[in-house]
Amino acid sequence: MTNTPADGRKLFNLKNNIKSYSKAGVAFSGGSDSTFLLAVCADALGKDNVAAVTAHSNVHTESELSEAKMFADTLGIHYIIIETDALSDPVFSSNPEDRCYYCKKRFYSKALAVLKETDIDVLLDGSNADDLSDYRPGYMAVRELGITSPLLEAGFTKDEIRALSKSMNLPTWNKPANPCLATRIPYGNAITGEKLGTIAKAEAFIRSLGFGIVRVRHHDETARIEIPATDIYRFMQDNIRQQVHQYLKSLGFAWITLDMEGYRTGSLNKAKE
Questions:
Q1: Starting from the edge strand earliest in sequence, which strands make up the sheet with 123-124, in order?
Q2: Over 125-166, what HEC string results?
Q3: Rounded distance, CA 222 to CA 142, Å?
Q4: CA dihedral in degrees (108, 174, 13, 55; nearest 10)?
Q5: pLDDT tens digits for 69-118?
Q6: Which domains does the chain carry?
Q7: Which among 253, 218, 258, 262 is positioned nearest to 240, based on CA atoms?
């Protein structure tokens, strides 16, 4: 996708909107949306007037945190890590369908409090227009706490964000979406640190074999692996299949399965079934 005039107008309007703030904090996960937003904010307000705020908990991998910090450092932006300890919330740990709401509200509430200590009253998040078509209970926390979503307000789609990110030489322009590890556990099944650690190890191992997009859905004793349908043939080669089987067995899974439908976003969202 090329940078169309429509993209240019949206970017112009986005920068003007952001310039209405003297300072701003950005909820920064290190994904394509928040990276694009952070870069635009740094350009519009100046790096000294922007803070990147990242959640840290065992529902996120350490590699995500280090990548986010590295990018913020390249921009010279003040970087803040918020310890959320999501599993200490028994409601979240029980894994209801709106689990994301509780996690996001905890993070955003803490982020707003920390930002006020640095004289920043505005927190921006990277929600975009495409997010409205998915089941995202976390967005209710955004509305409740008065978090601003400038990409959504400007009408940016995911494709437009990726196209502009590529033109801006941002390293995340084609980075696959990677929601928190809790999304790999079916609703109603308790979220534990042990499960999250197992999922993180399983996905990291499969990625090390050359698969860019991987989800290991944790169904108690069963691991259900999702990869893009175009990767299934290569995955089923004996040397790869056997390595994955042996490693995931060593993590404690009794059965390892490959989802023949292939990877798709939100496969555990009941609202989409």
A1: 78-83, 50-56, 24-27, 123-124
A2: CCCCHHHHHCCCCHHHHHHHCCCECHHHHCCCCHHHHHHHHH
A3: 34
A4: 10
A5: 999 999 999 999 999 999 999 999 999 999 999 999 999 999 999 999 99
A6: 5-167 (3.40.50.620), 181-272 (3.30.70)
A7: 258
Strands 222-226, 215-219: pairing is: antiparallel
- Number of Cβ atoms within 10 Å of the Cβ of 113: 10
Tell me the per-residue pLDDT of 128-175, one tens digit each, with 9 for 90 and over: 998 877 778 888 999 999 999 999 999 999 999 999 999 999 999 999
- Tokens 């650690």: give the residue: 197
Query: How many angstroms separate the CA atoms of 185 and 115, rounded?
Result: 32
Q: Using an 8 Å Cβ cutoff, are 103 and 93 in contact?
A: no
Q: How far is CA 207 from the centre of its chain?
A: 17
By C-alpha distance, which of 45, 42, 115 is closest to 75?
42
DSSP string, 229-254: GGGHHHHTSHHHHHHHHHHHHHTT-S
Q: Answer for the pair 126, 151: CB distance below 8 angstroms, yes or no.
A: yes
Task: Tell which residue, 111, 105, 137, has the closest CA to residue 124.
Answer: 111
Q: What's the rounded Cα separation, in Å, for the pair 164 and 214?
A: 25
Query: How far apart are alpha carbons 199 and 216 in whole angstroms?
Result: 6
Nearest to 16 by CA among 34, 36, 40: 40
pLDDT at 5: 57
Q: What is the mean pLDDT of the chain?
A: 92
* Cα 235 from Cα 258, distance rounded (Å): 9
Report residue 3 as tokens.
Answer: 């940078």
